[in-house]
Amino acid sequence: MARVVILDYGSGNLRSAERAVRRVGAEVEVTADPHAALEADGLVVPGVGAFAACMAGLLSVGGEKIIGSRLAGGRPVLGICVGMQILFERGVEHGVETAGTGEWPGTVERLHADIVPHMGWNTVRAPADSQLFAGLDPDTRFYFVHSYAARRWELDSGLPGQQPKVTWSHHGEDFVAAAENGALWATQFHPEKSGDAGAHLLENWLRTL
Fold first, then answer.
1. Of 118, 146, 171, 190, which is the active-site residue?
2. Vertex 160: Cα angle to 74 and 202 (nearest 5)
3. Is 180 an active-site residue?
4. What span, in angstroms and rounded, lies between the C-alpha atoms of 91 and 101?
5. Where, by residue number, is the active site (predicted)?
6. What local confidence, expressed as pLDDT, does residue 160 receive?
7. CA 144 to chain CA centroid, nearest Å
8. Considering 103, 171, 192, 200, which one is annotated as catalytic?
9. Which residues contact 56 (CB under 8 A, 6 or more apart)?
10. CA 85 to CA 162: how far, in whole Å?
């Protein structure tokens, strides 16, 4: 049984994430303890609310160092919602720019859409070779709640067979809905709120641990 830590840094649907990951067969612990987070087979970084507040919480528990150390060793990390957004270099909210963890280049910005926040079920466009979305129909819907997103993908590894796999969705404009980049995977939507589709996706992630 895979051991998964849900990183507790004061932000995110911790219990919902815990229940969802446990449902698909993992041993789950919710904690900010660095040793547990580093030693787990997989680390989930949830996040809800403002980018700046999430980054402040992450920094307060040394979460950016935990994420960086795990990735340096090829240890899987899964970011969810704002837990995905803080993986980018920066976020801009209400004209205020906040530094992210910088694992990926790029900026998280407000969506250009008639209705914001983007709230509800939406389809995604995943690459044919995606491991995260393997076995899911193209018309599968996932649950989104957000006003900000990465509107562009700026990382290209340039190495054959190692290009990041980027999944897109659309609300007013295209935005990054998920990404798979080595040991670092993330979703803008909430798999823990996406029913059977979200459970299937989490199972796909667990298979890589």
1. 190
2. 45
3. no
4. 10
5. 81 (nucleophile), 190, 192
6. 61
7. 12
8. 192
9. none
10. 22
The pair of structure tokens assigned to 121 is 């079920």
Distance between CA atoms of residues 149 and 181, nearest Å: 17
Task: Give the pair of three-digit tokens for residue 48.
Answer: 């809800």
Does residue 192 carry a catalytic annotation?
yes
Which tokens go with 170? 């659309």
Helix (H, G, I), strand (E, B) or coil at 79: strand
d(C-alpha 63, C-alpha 67), whole Å: 6
**Per-residue pLDDT band at 13 (split at 50, 70, 90):** confident
Identify the active-site residue in 64, 81, 109, 118. Answer: 81
170 carries an active-site annotation: no
Q: Is the pLDDT of residue 162 over 80?
A: no
Cβ count near 94 (within 10 Å): 7
Q: Express each pLDDT in 27-66 by its tens digit.
A: 999 999 999 999 999 999 999 999 999 999 999 999 999 9
CA-to-CA distance for 38 and 104, rounded, in angstroms? 20
CB-CB neighbours of 136 under 10 Å: 17
Query: If pLDDT is split at 50, 70 and 90, which confidence band does 196 have?
Result: very high
> Within 13 A of 108's CA, how many CA atoms are on the CB side?
29
**At 37, is the secondary structure helix, strand, or coil?**
helix
Residue 208 tokens read as 């890589």
Q: Token pair of 182, please?
A: 């080595």
The string of pLDDT tens digits covering residues 67-118 is 999 999 999 999 999 999 999 999 999 999 999 999 999 999 999 999 999 9
